[in-house]
Amino acid sequence: MRKLNSLRDHLKTALPELERSPEALHIYAEGGSIATRDGLNLGFEMRYEATITLPDCRYHPAQIFLPIVIWLRQWQREVIQNHQTGTERIRFKVEPIDDQAADIEIKLPLSEALDVLPNSNAGYDMHFRDEPPVPGLEPLTDPAVLLRQIWGKVDAIPPEFWTGYED
């Protein structure tokens, strides 16, 4: 599925350890449904819950959430534009393994619309619809910027360093 692949690529770009360890990231669709209507266009929309699992994850959960929020701004904007959806439908679970790692699971509502029209070869042409652009709200980063450091408790002296990567 196009959005699952895009999300996987985005997370691997933003969080390099996920690229180096393929077993550290699993993304799949659950609870899917197809929405379709009668008409000349045989198109339909696939609606599903994307599940992202990161077993034995060494990243702080905030390091995972930030790239997902950035990705949503481009690929599924209505999730974060709708207050109820953005508050209730983006869910996560963190099960600490020890003080350095946790199993993390994140669930997001996603949809992918396809236009399907007959072609001259007695077959069909299928095209994924792009997300509608929102003028003036380009993605925060393009291409994705590697997350180098996260600091917590910035009002503390000195600030608490959570994690990061060297250049």
Query: What is the CA-atom radius of gyration, in angstroms?
Result: 19 Å
- Indicate how many domains the architecture comprises: 1
Structural class: alpha+beta
Count of distinct strands: 7
* Head-to-tail CA distance between termini: 33 Å
Q: Main beta sheet: strand number and arrangement?
A: 5 strands, antiparallel
Classify the beta-strand content into a percent band. Answer: 35-45%
- Helix tally? 5
Q: What's the quaternary structure here?
A: single chain
Unreliable spans: none
Q: Classify the helix fraction into a percent range.
A: 25-40%
Global mean pLDDT: 85
The coarse overall form would be: elongated
Order of helices and strands: HHEEHHHEEEEE
Structural commentary:
With 167 residues, this protein is of the alpha+beta class. Helix content is 26%, strand content 37%. The chain has one domain. The protein has helices at 2-14, 16-20, 61-75, 77-81, 83-88; strands spanning 26-36, 44-57, 91-96, 102-118, 124-128, 149-152, 160-164. Strands 1, 2, 3, 4 and 5 form a 5-stranded antiparallel β-sheet that branches. Strands 6-7 form a two-stranded antiparallel sheet. The longest helix has 15 residues, at 61-75.
